[in-house]
Amino acid sequence: MTWAEILYRKKMKVELHPFNKDWKNLFDIEKDLLSSTIQNSDIQIEHIGSTAIEGLSAKPIIDILIGVPDFSKANDFIAPIKTCNYTYISVYEDTMPYRRFFTKSTENKRTHQIHMVELNYPFWIRHLAFRNYLREHQEEKEAYNLIKSELSEKDWDDINDYAEAKTEFIRAIEYKAGIREW
């Protein structure tokens, strides 16, 4: 990146929306679509992220976790998932070779994203433990909502910086949920 690009780089804010009860319905529709397209009864499809936690504000993107029993076969599911209007983003395999990542957009706005990992792999376990813990613990859910709200007011160079800023809190919740390794 040149100095000119650094100087004139546009900062971004994270746009959070109040909880929307339709997020569950949007997930259910997508789960049905993916299940019928993939046609493999051994996979599991879960709704994760803030849109999966009632009462939590969120970026309005439905996060979907697909668990496959044998990750060596994960690439077999790429083509079927792409037929559901998902874009496969292979570049992230460099840093997360245990995950396949997909996005879906409408009118140039991301609406869904899929994280495909091996069932019972740490990524799978951590994300479900975090979701389930916040679903069951109102005080921690409110604290997370406050952190997200405060962070959304800041200017960010990259959405990953926003995500990184939440990591300490997320790890603390995972620890409370029984996760001891990352």
TrEMBL record:
Gene3D superfamilies recorded: Beta Polymerase, domain 2
Domain of life from the UniProt record: Bacteria
Leader sequence residues: none
Official protein name in the record: GrpB family protein
